[in-house]
Write a structure and sequence with these properties.
Family: Belongs to the chalcone isomerase family.
Organism: Arachis hypogaea (Peanut)
Number of strands: 10
GO molecular function, one term: fatty acid binding
Pfam families: Chalcone_2
CATH topology of one domain: Chalcone isomerase
Strand content: 15-25%
Protein name: Chalcone isomerase domain-containing protein
Bound molecules: lauric acid
Largest sheet: 7 strands, antiparallel
Order of helices and strands: EHHHHEEEEEHHHEHHEEEHH
Amino acid sequence: MASLRFPFSFSQTQPPHYSRPLSSFPVAAAVGATAVGATAAFAVLTSSSSSSHRQFLETALNFLFSSDRTSLPAWGTLSLADMSVPVVESKSGATFPSVLGDSQKLCGIGLRRKSVFGLKNIDVYAFGVYADDNDIKECLAGKFEKLSALELKGNKEFTEDILENDISVTVSLQIVYGRLSISSVRSAFEESVGSRLQKFGGSDNKELLQRFTAQFKDEIKIPKGSVINISREKGYVLRTSIDGQEVGSIQSKLLCKSILDLYLGEEPFDKQAKEDIELNLASYLQK
Ligand SMILES: CCCCCCCCCCCC(=O)O
């Protein structure tokens, strides 16, 4: 039988490692558990089937029982973003801040693996998806607020509305493969974004794809640790920056949807990441 371990070895200075970290649901469970007693938290912890959720819950509990904590957040409103701890994608070691800019909260992280010459899979980049919770609420609360976060997870209409609507979202790619050239970044985008442009917009979008990939100019270096941020901003403006330097912006609803579809669509690069992201986005409607 598992034993109760309080406090966990949580350090405020060292970012916690999660392989699959960010479900508001277990955090909410942890917060709730504080109110009803550690026994309930223990029950949730020991019955959690997924080791990542278990890990995440442990961290949440650490936070709650940490001596550094000065005040308890309101019932059910705690998310990792509120804890302001960076999140580490455990397989690659890539670290993601829990909040981007003023208002975008980290909703989930994942890993993009790609097969090379059909032979072996390499880990190319880790990614984090950020969204503005107020935007989500403004756009989608009217339609979905009666459904629980768990009911919304996997709900096709909800996912479709996230892809389609003018909601601020950023996908942050952190390169983990050490020998990446900018031309391979261009061709990877050509393949993945190209297939989505075709799926949603038909075959007549070569020029749009070319405008997007042309942002990744030959002189740009992309060593391990480089960060490519791709943001959908208000008015369906897709802004791209590399290591904090803007490389271009393109106003196109179709392009925005095609990029987000890579991570949240029917065939996402990382299925578990998509689930975590959806659950967190859905939880914003409940707050
Ligand atoms: C050797 C493999 C090279 C792959 C480079 C991918 C770099 C970024 C591409 C982003 C879009 C995608 O993941 O398809």
